[in-house]
């Protein structure tokens, strides 16, 4: 679910402007999962544009507090959400921790890095939601440390039905600055893509695991 329509449209426009989101229906990308995709999203680019990263920071901070109340800690999911998570924590004047994909193989073997006390209220910040699997693994790692997860806030989601099911099963509320629907509407309006290309992108979104397979 998006925080609000205006933020969703503005965020989508900014992501398109800096080519953080690339749309290429004719020459699809290949994801690590092996899925063929006509879209590629690299939200790390946001950090290289001060005015845009400040916008994302401010929208996150404002909407997290409005939606979840002010938490005790902000947690970022490594590695993509560490940078923006720190910005949000700084804006809210809160402690920050980050969550590795798996525990370290050496030293203290931490998966959650930073100071976290049992019972603290945590909002998790993520950069991108696809199936939600890796994001929810971070939630479980935090829960195993005794954290009370208030919810998750992400920059962008593809809006896959499998992600919605995964978050519902994990009992986690997810809110995003923007999403796939708003992105495509804006991309057509601003002539980044044609209506025919929009149809292709909608077909992919409906069945990403099988799209492009002959």
Key words describing this protein structure:
214 residues; Rossmann fold; globular; 21% strand; alpha/beta
Q: Give the termini separation.
A: 33 Å
Overall tally of structural domains: 1
* Gyration radius from CA atoms, angstroms: 17 Å
Spans where pLDDT lies below 50 across 5 or more residues:
none
Order of helices and strands: HEEEEHEHEEEHEHEHH
Q: How many strands in all?
A: 10
Summing up helix and strand content along with how strands pair, one would put the structural category as alpha/beta
Percentage of residues assigned to helices: 40-55%
Mean pLDDT: 94
Number of helices: 7
How much strand?
15-25%
Which fold name corresponds to the CATH topology?
Answer: Rossmann fold
User: For this structure, what is the CATH class?
Assistant: Alpha Beta
Main sheet: strand order? 7-6-5-8-9-10
The largest pleated sheet is described as:
6 strands, mixed
CATH architecture title: 3-Layer(aba) Sandwich
Nutshell version of this structure?
The protein is 41% helix and 21% strand.
Structure explained in plain terms:
With 214 residues, this protein is of the alpha/beta class. It has a single domain, classed as Rossmann fold. It has helices at 5-17, 50-68, 82-92, 133-144, 161-170, 180-189, 195-206; strands at residues 21-23, 29-30, 36-37, 39-41, 73-77, 96-99, 112-113, 121-129, 148-157, 174-179. The strands form three sheets. The protein has a six-stranded mixed β-sheet with strand order 7-6-5-8-9-10, sandwiched between helices. It has a two-stranded antiparallel sheet with strand order 1-4. A two-stranded antiparallel ribbon has the order 2-3. A hairpin with a 5-residue loop joins strand 2 (29-30) and strand 3 (36-37). The chain starts with a helix and ends in an 8-residue tail after the last helix. The mean pLDDT is 94. Residues 59-158 form the Phosphoribosyltransferase domain.
